[in-house]
């Protein structure tokens, strides 16, 4: 498994380097597409090795739902695969530059901490409710990472357009198309986040009674804040037509709250 981890880390690092290369100003569109394709292949290779690494951990008795750290690794893998698919379908290859570091970080956390040294503040996830909560949380983390990556990409492109440092390329995704893609990503994430919160509260109450929620108030508040920010994006767009920068900033705020829940849960564990 160590060899797989090293290979996957090297592949992620190579992908990050490939995306980070500063292209020459005179680079033709065909050359830019070729460079993005090479970076995408490296990221796909890293994702495949990440899958193999998780598979090796499963063989060793550490499945993705064994701890928050392994679930984080699996969620990061979902984000990478989702970023590759979305970037390929919607011509937003730059999204790979955002999810590649997430994949490397998630892989490292999953391998370094695993499940052996974890003392989870909740009982082991043996019930269907617990497994549903962790599964939804993992999927939500991956989806939220993609949505936040699209939001960050939108804000970057919007700023460069305002400063007249960027102009849309023929065949590329426009700023309007990127904003629409961001909205659709949030639409998919909000139901998952809602079910994650509901199953988490039910699991906590079932394990330690209503009083147990008081001991986890930080996680509850941060999760509620993430849900409110995400729901506000949908409501404000439908009722007031609010979109663009404000929606992207709300998405990043919701993602930050989600990360705080994950970090706090890991600290407690």
Structural features, described:
By secondary structure, the chain is an all-alpha fold. Helix content is 79%, strand content 0%. The chain has nine helices and no strands. α2 packs parallel to α4 and α5 crosses α9 (245-268). Mean pLDDT is 79; it is low at 117-122.
Quick tags:
mainly alpha; single chain; 79% helix; 269 residues; 0% strand; 9 helices
Report the uncertain regions.
117-122
Main beta-sheet strand count, sense and barrel state:
none
Distance between the termini: 24 Å
Order of helices and strands: HHHHHHHHH
What structural category arises from helix and sheet content?
A: mainly alpha
- Helix amount: over 70%
Report a brief summary of the structure.
With 269 residues, the chain is mostly helical. It contains nine helices and no strands.
Write the SSE topology.
Blueprint: H1 2-20, H2 29-59, H3 68-89, H4 95-113, H5 128-162, H6 175-208, H7 211-214, H8 217-240, H9 245-268
């Amino acid at each position: 498994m160590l060899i797989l981890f090293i290979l996957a880390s090297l592949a992620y690092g190579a992908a990050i380097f490939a995306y980070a290369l500063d292209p020459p100003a005179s680079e033709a569109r065909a050359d830019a597409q070729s460079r993005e394709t090479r970076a995408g292949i490296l990221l796909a290779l890293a994702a495949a090795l990440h899958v193999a690494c998780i598979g090796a951990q499963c063989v060793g008795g550490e499945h993705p739902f064994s701890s928050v750290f392994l679930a984080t690794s699996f969620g990061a893998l979902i984000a990478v695969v989702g970023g590759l698919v979305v970037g390929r379908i919607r011509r937003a290859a730059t999204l790979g530059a955002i999810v590649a570091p997430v994949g490397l970080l998630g892989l490292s956390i999953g391998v370094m901490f695993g499940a052996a040294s974890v003392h989870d503040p909740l009982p082991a996830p043996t019930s269907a409710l617990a497994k549903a909560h962790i599964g939804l949380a993992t999927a939500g983390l991956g989806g939220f990472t993609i949505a936040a990556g699209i939001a960050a990409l939108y804000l970057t492109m919007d700023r460069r357009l305002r400063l007249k440092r960027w102009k849309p390329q023929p065949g590329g995704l426009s700023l309007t198309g990127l904003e629409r893609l961001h909205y659709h990503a949030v639409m998919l994430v909000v139901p998952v986040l809602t079910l994650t919160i509901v199953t988490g509260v039910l699991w906590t109450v079932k394990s330690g009674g209503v009083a147990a929620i008081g001991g986890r108030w930080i996680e509850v508040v941060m999760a509620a804040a993430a849900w409110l920010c995400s729901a506000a994006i949908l409501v404000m767009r439908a009722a007031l037509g609010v979109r663009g920068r404000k929606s992207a900033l709300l998405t990043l705020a919701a993602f930050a709250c989600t990360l705080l829940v994950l970090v706090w849960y890991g600290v407690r564990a």
